[in-house]
Hints:
The complex is a heterodimer of chains A (498) and B (104).
Chain A: H1 8-37, H2 40-47, H3 58-72, E1 78-82, E2 90-96, E3 102-108, H4 123-132, H5 139-161, H6 178-191, H7 193-206, H8 208-211, H9 214-219, H10 224-231, H11 250-260, E4 265-271, E5 279-284, E6 295-300, E7 306-311, H12 315-328, H13 334-361, H14 368-397, H15 405-426, H16 429-451, H17 465-493
Antiparallel strand pairs in A: 1-2, 1-4, 2-3, 4-5, 5-6, 6-7
Helix pairs in contact in A: 1-4, 1-5, 1-13, 2-4, 2-17, 3-11, 5-7, 6-13, 7-12, 13-14, 14-15, 14-16, 15-16, 16-17
Chain B: H1 4-15, H2 18-25, H3 31-54, H4 58-94
Amino acid sequence: MAAVRPGFRQAMTWLHDWSGLIAGWLLLVIAAAGTLSVWRQELDAWTHPELARGAVDQAAAGQAAVDWLQAHAGRAPAWYLDLADARSPGTLAFWATPDGGFAQRTLSAETGSPDGIRDSLGGEFFYRLHFELQLPYPWGRLLAAAAGEMLLVVLLTGIVAHARIFKDFFTFRTGKGQRSWLDGHVVLGVLALPFHLMIAFTGVVTLIGLFMPWGGVAAFAGDRAALARALDPAAERPLSGRPAPLAPVAPMLRAAEARFGGAGISTVNVVHPGDAAATVVVAQGESPGIAVQERSITFDGVTGRPLASFVQGRPAMRVYDLLYGLHMGRFAGLASRWLYFLSGLMLTGAIATGLVLWTVKRRRPHGSGHTLVEKLNAGVIGGMPAAFAGFLLANRLLPGHLADRAGWEVRIVFGLWAAALVLAGVAPARRSWTWLLGAGALLCLAAVAGDAGLPVRRLPGGALSGDGVASGVDGTLIALAVCLGGAARLLARRRSPA
Amino acid sequence: MTLLLPLLAFALLAAGTHRQARILFGRPPPWRRRRALLGAGHATLLLSLWLRVAGPGRPRALVEWFGDLSFCALLVVLVLWAAEFVRLSSAARRGSPARGSDSR
């Protein structure tokens, strides 16, 4: 008898299952880190409790930062500053080091110095993990872009595979084994489907210049440098070799603030400081619209005179700015950011339940492959909350004088995750899930305990934003601990398999 | 209001489906009532969209509307799950065999 060819829906179901499995663990990390990045600035504030919270005089903060960099990184070819504002209490400074690497420090908005401020990546860790996966450029970004494309395939095949998408819209049944996992996966996937499709597509577009550069390179006859200049036409000048002191930047920043209106300043780049050809490029902060507004003013670094201003008006780039703005969500107010966070949690949950469902559907022994997937699920999914909570706990416990303190916080994350994978490898799946979820709950509570009693510094006359940071982060950790602890307890009590 | 209307809309749509109507009312709705509930639910969704984008900042309001939908739909799903859980638990305590919403 001839084999029956699978129909279109069956083929899409097969593709959904296998593309979801292959990319699932990577997508889980990207989704979870991206979800936490919604609160990047708040996590920065939480992980740097020494920094005063409140409204910031950006011109003064920029001048203080430049003064410190002149004294401690005067030979760097450029300084890149993510200026402090009401949400971010510190100025993030990057500069190239003589050994070819990059240094990053958080500087006080008041003094411009990192002294007395614990060295930590803060929310920046989750942001970079989201699109760079803690891998060197460009490999991390290429991998993230590939995962984004897989997510689009998974979402579209999932829509086709789910025949009763409207009839089962509200269906969620518990205590029914495989059906419950499928219901949970579908609810989390369908109810925020517009968000999932948007975030996957815009995420891929954000990195498109890296992994699909051929159109742009062809348009510039292979001259990648010309392409880069066309994309980012900030007025740069070559090094002159003649030393000249840098003019005070505060007047330049005030002039830029006046031109930008209420948008404020996002970044300040000082190129060739101490040279006669120095320039100070000041970029505008967030606009109220969805699209990121690319607008900058370039000042002569020696005289402080404005040299050029740039406003992005090219239609193709404005489309990119709109898609990028949708992905970043910087336009969002507090309520909308909570909705972005909730939708991100639902995407993370959909991926996690999908990975578990893959093994539950194939519960009968299938050999080493099935066992490997079960153990990877326990280690990656179960270990993730413990690893991330470990980062926050390490932020509170590691001594301030520790060399490469920020690096140690990151090593602790991956150390805990590796330990979770080892535990999942040696212990039966149900037991390792129970222990890992329980450990995650305990570490979340420990991080809250580590935060308890820390005074919140506020700038004179500042708003009460500092209270929102502590209550938001600690409250979320407590809620997560309750969920993880409840799940661990449920698993420990259950005698029969799901 | 931005959340109340989508919440009401999804509640009406849920009440118009067979499975959820069994949870809420013990039996699936008659054909006419089902059509009315589904129609009212869709109309309320459209009304919530219209009210959202009627003010300034239309593109941003549209994005926020989708976020409202996800939140409200999830809330309705959780309430329905809790309602079925309570119904089955109380039936088990009374000792009577309760039928799940998906039993035939």
